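Feature request disguised as a bug: please show the residue count (246) next to Acyl-ACP thioesterase in the output. Example input:
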Amino acid sequence: MAKKYTTPYEVAYYDGDITRRMTIPAMLAVVIKTSEEQSDALNRGSDYVASFGLGWVITNYEIHITRLPRVGEKINVTTQAMAYNKYFCYRNFWIHDQQGNECVLIKSTFVLMDQENRKMSSVLPEIIEPYESEKITKIYRGEKIEKIENGQFLPYRVRYFDIDGNQHVNNAIYFNWLLDVLGYDFLATHEPTFINVKFDKEVEYGQMVESHYEMLDDQDQIVTRHEIQIDGQIYCEANMTWKKSQ
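Example output, currently without the count:
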């Protein structure tokens, strides 16, 4: 069975929004840091991966939210590199509260990207073996992302501080664009219960992106559909379900 790695974390004031709930970008930054800590402990950190001319890139998140942690709360973040095939690596993250209750489950898909030609590389045994992940042949296909049918959008410019060490927009930044379009009143009174997001193409410094969205309201829940577009091409797409905050 693949090795698990757990680290404690106290949610800081800068991790929260006006409701004092942890934001999605802050949460993702913390869980990714946990995976990096595990990789470093296994001597498979970013420098080791870069020695092959490669870097890790996230292509999908499925985020199941029971509740978002709150500012000042102490949580435990656990990660496990579950399985891999020729091109895709599947890693789970869990956030538990101090009573051991699961707050969030994140299922993620990673690929290795050639830093020179920005093309996907096959998974190297030297990199993946220490995690003791299960080798599989099938490709995990998550829930289908429904397309926007009648949406609207807001434009955003890619800033210098949106770019990370991989020379493209950090994945957490996409969520600023995806969520901000929903507006103050909605975000202050609703919280997500499920997020399914797919990153299709890399966004670079100076580009202008359009954050398209559509909101569907039924009796049980609110669903939002999202697309990040540049010049009519989709760079990121997502579906989210929401509930009213208590």
